[in-house]
């Protein structure tokens, strides 16, 4: 079995945004196995021989690899740039960028952060696929690339071997999601703790929230969320959550969506899926017991939700992350 770290190659284009450029190194570079060994190797390359690359800030970066590094990648990440040239203006690549991308091996996973999606789209790699980008560019992106199914209302889109994210912090969410997909919630949560970022924001969460910062003169819904998290295994009614904040159901629902970008019901389902994933990975509880402890009630209900979110059954998910363990599946599969 190949035990080498998964190689992530980040393509730094002129005009690259330093924050987005640093996300893969920070997130993937933190991922370790149970023996403390790195799970990823992250390198940065340019479309030209090693040397300086302009950023959108008042400094350049010195990149130590040329485009040949793309041929060694298991995953290629294209961060945002404000100098995309014809990719942004005309939907086509320069000859230099076309030659660089041609080095990528078939089957390599492709990831775009924010406007990096223009590069993948201009290369024809998003045709017929769902994708997202920063909400401010979404309408232009769709006009320029009508063959792409653009969703401007999500943080990121996982389409298997091609993944795209919205702007800035959504790139962090996407990279943490990839770590979770590759190595499970335990590793992803450890990375999130060490980098002090949320361990999970679902890709379907709203990209743009009209009132992202609650009015300090008004109550928030923090207490209700903490109350619900402590009793996910129990039936939770919307009116009970609203009562924790002494709000009407209507006011609570509006305030909750303003603060989180999700309805209370969507948020509860998200938390229960995360609880189920954790229990499936870290315990030998039967599928029926996991379903009850996560608040789904029945194994069939949990199966439907996990297949909807992850595309796999509970037993298949557990098999992926607990290979070799003796576990009880109960009768839920």
Write the layout of secondary structure elements.
Elements: E1 6-11, H1 18-28, E2 40-45, E3 51-54, E4 60-63, E5 75-78, H2 86-89, H3 95-101, E6 109-113, H4 117-122, E7 130-131, H5 138-144, E8 149-150, E9 156-158, E10 162-165, H6 169-183, H7 185-195, H8 222-229, H9 238-244, H10 249-260, H11 264-282, H12 287-294, H13 299-310, H14 314-321
Parallel strand pairs: 1-2, 1-5, 5-6, 6-10, 7-8
Antiparallel strand pairs: 3-4, 9-10
Helix pairs in contact: 1-6, 6-7, 8-9, 9-10, 11-12, 12-13
In short:
The protein is of the alpha/beta class. It has 14 helices and ten strands. The chain is globular.
Strand order of the largest sheet: 2-1-5-6-10-9
What would the average pLDDT be, to the nearest integer?
Answer: 89
Helical content (DSSP H or I, runs of 4+) = 40-55%
Residue stretches low in confidence (pLDDT < 50, at least 5 long) are: 324-333
β-strand percent reads: 5-15%
Order of secondary-structure elements: EHEEEEHHEHEHEEEHHHHHHHHH
| Radius of gyration from CA coordinates | 21 Å
For the terminal residues, how far apart are their CA atoms? 29 Å
State the assembly state of the protein chains.
single chain
Reported for the largest beta sheet, the result is: 6 strands, mixed
Total number of beta strands? 10
Structural class, judged by helices and strands? Answer: alpha/beta
Per the principal axes of the C-alpha atoms, what is the gross shape?
A: globular
- The helix tally amounts to 14
């Amino acid at each position: 079995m190949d035990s080498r770290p998964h190689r992530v190659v980040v393509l730094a284009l002129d005009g690259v945004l330093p924050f987005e450029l640093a996300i893969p190194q920070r997130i993937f570079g933190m991922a370790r196995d149970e023996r403390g060994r790195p799970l990823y190797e992250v390198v940065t390359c340019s479309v030209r021989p090693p040397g300086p690359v302009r950023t959108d800030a008042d400094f350049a970066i010195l990149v130590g690899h040329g485009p040949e590094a793309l041929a060694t990648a298991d995953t290629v990440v294209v961060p945002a740039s404000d100098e995309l040239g014809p990719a942004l203006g005309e939907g086509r690549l320069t000859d230099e960028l076309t030659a660089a991308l041609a080095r990528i091996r078939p089957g390599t996973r492709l990831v775009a952060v924010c406007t990096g999606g223009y590069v993948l789209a201009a290369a024809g790699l998003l045709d017929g696929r769902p994708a997202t980008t920063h909400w401010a560019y979404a309408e232009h992106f769709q006009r320029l690339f009508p063959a792409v199914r653009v969703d401007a209302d999500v943080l990121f889109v996982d389409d298997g071997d091609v993944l795209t994210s919205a702007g800035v912090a959504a790139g962090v969410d996407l990279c943490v999601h990839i770590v979770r997909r590759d190595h499970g919630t335990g590793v992803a949560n450890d990375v999130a703790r060490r980098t002090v970022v949320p361990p999970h924001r679902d890709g379907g969460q709203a990209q743009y929230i009209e009132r992202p910062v609650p009015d300090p003169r008004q109550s928030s819904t923090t207490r209700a969320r903490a109350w619900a998290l402590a009793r996910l295994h129990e039936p939770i009614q919307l009116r009970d959550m609203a009562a924790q904040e002494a709000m009407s159901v209507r006011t609570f629902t509006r305030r909750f969506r303003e603060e989180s970008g999700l309805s209370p019901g969507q948020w509860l389902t998200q938390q229960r899926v995360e609880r189920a994933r954790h229990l499936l990975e870290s315990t030998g509880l039967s599928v029926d017991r996991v379903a009850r402890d996560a608040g789904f009630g029945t194994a069939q209900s949990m199966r439907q939700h996990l297949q909807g979110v992850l595309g796999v059954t509970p037993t298949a998910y557990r098999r992926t992350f607990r290979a070799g363990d003796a576990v009880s599946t109960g009768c839920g599969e």
